Structure to design on (680 residues):
């Protein structure tokens, strides 16, 4: 079983921000994390590594554990507890993805058939629970009760965000503020915790812990905003990538929230029917992308994302200049420049 | 919101073992545990307490947290960390029940409509995740890294047991040994951990920890054996209780494993078809109960349960006689005498 990591590269070249510096910064410790991941997804029940491995070895970006590793470099952490904690972070994320795919009835994930389609919902729910449990086992092994507190609190917030998102689904009246609360919980809480725990295990002061938390949280919001923009981006369609999952599921993401707010009466009726699930076929998706283009809300969403990415960068300014800090700043700028 | 606890009483009276002593022993601390449970199932997302409360306030027996509380009495623990830990144990159990109901497509639970029927699978999966996360948050709050280790290890074993059970479903060739492994993981691991952590937080020696682990583990196996016997018990049918869930789901429980082993060629063909899901309607269930009665395998299963209950009782013999020990011994004997 391998655990190949797919690196992202931005669409353009030249001056575009790149993930390469953060990938180099964390390459060696990421190998150690991948070894922990592969070891701990094993089980004497063969279905577990088969199903977990389908997702874990299937090209994750390892964004979240990378934050723990980069943070450890930034603060000069000398131990090795961050390997297990970073693996725990990835397991928490993977468990959430498996359950998300069951909840959404997803058909694909990371360009492959989703686990729930291959193995069914029951196995996917239970293997998600296994990974969740393994995550906490790894945290306990790392021995830091304070890191455990940060991650278990985040885990509660993530679950609340997932339920909140479900509650907001097919609700056209969802506001930008509620949307930001949802992505702050379901996505950014884990980014924040992943980043913060590097300072926790290194014994940093409260200001540094907070700075790393802010970095992760703002980056997480930016990351999710871009994900949500991409799902309606006409450039993505040109690249032959699937899109429209959020549209079909009636998820109120920012491109839709803004297009609805900026739309005329006819457009608003269209969005009401579409989000309610009455008109969300492929032709409707084409119309939705057209309206979103008309009101420029993919670009508006990306603009919001850039705002949060810059806040992420600024939160690192309390740390002295270093290759780690430069890599983390560039990673944040990359996150909002990416197209897939 | 209340959190009423349904106490069990055995069918007979007089000399029958009773849960009353253990209920009295733990009544005061159980009130504290219930307060923690009610407080921690709250959330600003209204769907969470609604769904969680449907199950939690719906008449659980609180068997598992009761083990933690009784163990604390047995070893003379003086602190109050056991309240949060016992609540965490109940949350872990409740999360598992919610996910089980999704996995099995259950229609009822504890005599009421199951949460997945009322709220749907997506919400039920996600609220299960919330309770799971809350459980770990409570463990962290309790401050014992060793108790966290015991419970997170148990949580991994439970998840593996659940997946193993799924793998064995509809497999007529499942052996008694494999069945015991499955229930040892999916049920007894949490009973063992719930019991052991009382010794852990009280700072008991390894022998006492092991004794309380053994008590919980053997009691858990006995408890599950009786549950599985009851699902085919003709006396239960006379009481007007639903039965046959295991039969319809093709679960290989001990009454079936033994009836298949003891059956003639015709009977074996019936079981093969029934467990495979080809003949499992109500008439087939009547026939199954008849065959199980013919080979006395409900009674054989109960006999196995008595064996494990006696082992549970014996494991407590290293502790001096006390009202706590007597209550725990009687609870184990009650567990195998109950009819629902």
């Amino acid at each position: 079983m391998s655990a190949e990591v797919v690196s992202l590269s931005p669409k353009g070249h030249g001056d575009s921000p790149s993930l390469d510096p953060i990938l180099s910064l964390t390459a060696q410790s990421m190998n150690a994390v991948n070894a922990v991941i592969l070891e701990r997804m094993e089980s004497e029940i063969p279905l577990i590594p088969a199903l977990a491995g389908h997702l874990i070895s299937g090209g994750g970006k390892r964004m979240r554990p990378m934050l723990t590793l980069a943070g450890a470099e930034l603060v000069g952490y000398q131990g090795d507890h961050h390997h297990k904690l970073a693996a725990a972070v990835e397991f928490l994320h993977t468990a959430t993805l498996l359950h998300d795919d069951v909840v959404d009835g997803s058909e694909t994930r990371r360009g492959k058939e989703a686990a729930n389609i291959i193995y069914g919902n029951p196995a996917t729910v239970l293997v998600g629970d296994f990974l969740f449990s393994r995550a906490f086992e790894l945290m306990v092994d790392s021995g830091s009760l304070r890191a455990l507190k940060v991650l278990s609190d985040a885990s509660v917030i993530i679950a609340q965000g997932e339920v909140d998102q479900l509650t907001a689904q097919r609700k056209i009246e969802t506001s930008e503020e509620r949307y930001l609360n949802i992505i702050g919980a379901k996505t950014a809480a884990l980014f924040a915790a992943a980043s913060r725990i590097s300072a926790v295990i290194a014994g940093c002061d409260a200001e540094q812990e907070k700075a790393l938390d802010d970095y992760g949280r703002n980056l997480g919001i930016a990351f999710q905003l871009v994900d949500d923009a991409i799902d309606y981006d006409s450039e993505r369609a040109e690249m032959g990538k699937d899109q429209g999952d959020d549209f079909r599921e009636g998820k109120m993401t920012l491109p839709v929230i803004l297009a609805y707010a900026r739309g005329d009466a006819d457009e608003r009726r269209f969005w009401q029917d579409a989000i309610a699930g009455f008109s969300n076929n492929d032709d409707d998706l084409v119309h939705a992308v057209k309206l979103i283009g008309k009101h420029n809300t993919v670009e508006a969403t990306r603009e919001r994302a850039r705002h949060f990415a810059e806040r992420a960068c600024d939160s690192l300014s309390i740390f002295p200049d270093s290759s780690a800090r430069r890599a983390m700043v560039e990673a944040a700028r990359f996150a909002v420049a990416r197209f897939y």
